[in-house]
Specification:
Distance between the termini: 10 Å
Shape: globular
CATH superfamily of the largest domain: HAD superfamily/HAD-like
Radius of gyration: 18 Å
Oligomer: single chain
CATH architecture of the largest domain: 3-Layer(aba) Sandwich
Number of strands: 14
Structural class: alpha/beta
Number of helices: 11
Order of helices and strands: EHHEHEEEHEEHEEHHEEHEHEHEH
Helix content: 25-40%
Number of domains: 2
Strand content: 15-25%
């Protein structure tokens, strides 16, 4: 029996309106009644999930989230850190300078806030829907992070995945042997500490809960879900997932994120 369901949020649990439909909510409630842990597994950071915890009734002790692509695992109600794998300040500084040299919006994630540098109005509007723990910056002063825990850094450019992927070779002098690079949502180039991905976060949480990894399900749609789908006991790609994710998944749902794909997974493999 599967005891833990770890699910990506954007384009997986959430529909294209960034909402959780009633089909998914009802199925998740039934899975929780059976004692299954429902775990958001996202590139987003703590405090950057909007009303998700309340919507799923998981804003309490002994409920958990895997965030920042696995770099941090927290207990939802208390924000207690179960595991954390941060970037060094010096490496984050190098990455920041590179991103700004390409005129990109740069976002820096700490356990308390998401710091957003130079967003355009559309990105600003988009991320303001995700939560209140957001700090916008018009300058380039990242000295403020010298004594902070930096969990993740990302570059943003809307509808520019080809351009963002073209930057990966240029980043090698900074990232090689130091940084894990991934991509998501057709707009983000994401940068974590070396070896960190959602699958590592899942392994850390499963170990903490004494759940065998074979008893876990991981559901996703995009490049930053590779580790989650490969490491989970059952790796699931939603129907709207990109082809590379479908190619590595154990199963592919018949439904998309707009058609209660998470409910399909729960109905098929849990209930």
């Amino acid at each position: 029996m599967y005891k833990l369901l770890a699910m990506d949020l954007d384009e997986t649990l959430f529909n294209d309106q960034h909402q959780i439909d009633e089909g998914n909510k009802k199925a998740i409630a039934k899975a929780r009644e059976k004692g299954v842990k429902i775990v958001p597994c996202s590139g987003r950071g703590p405090g950057f999930l909007g009303t998700l915890y309340d919507d799923l009734d998981i804003n309490q002790e002994q409920e958990y989230s895997i965030l920042c692509n696995g770099a941090i695992v927290i207990e939802n109600k208390t924000n207690k850190i179960i595991s954390c794998s941060p970037l060094t300040y010096e490496k984050a500084k190098e990455l920041y300078k590179f991103g700004r040299s390409k005129n990109l919006c740069v976002q820096i994630f700490t356990p308390e806030n998401v710091h957003v540098f130079h967003p355009d109005e559309k990105e600003k509007e988009r991320i303001m829907n995700f939560g209140n723990n957001i700090v916008f910056h018009d300058d380039d002063n990242i000295e403020i992070f010298k004594d902070e825990t930096i969990i993740k850094l990302l570059f943003e450019k809307e509808d520019s995945m080809d351009f963002l992927r073209s930057l990966e070779p240029e980043l090698i002098p900074i990232t090689d042997n130091f940084i894990t690079v991934s991509f998501s949502s057709n707009r983000y180039l994401e940068l974590n500490a070396l070896g960190i991905h959602k699958g590592i976060g899942l392994l850390n949480l499963a170990n903490y809960l004494n759940i065998d990894i074979s008893e876990t399900i991981g559901v996703g749609d995009n490049y930053n879900d590779v580790g989650l789908i490969e490491d989970a006991g059952l790796g699931v790609a939603v129907q709207n997932a990109i082809e590379p994710i479908k190619n590595i998944a154990d199963v592919i749902t018949k439904t998309t994120n707009n058609e209660s794909a998470i409910a399909e997974v729960i109905d098929t493999y849990i209930l």
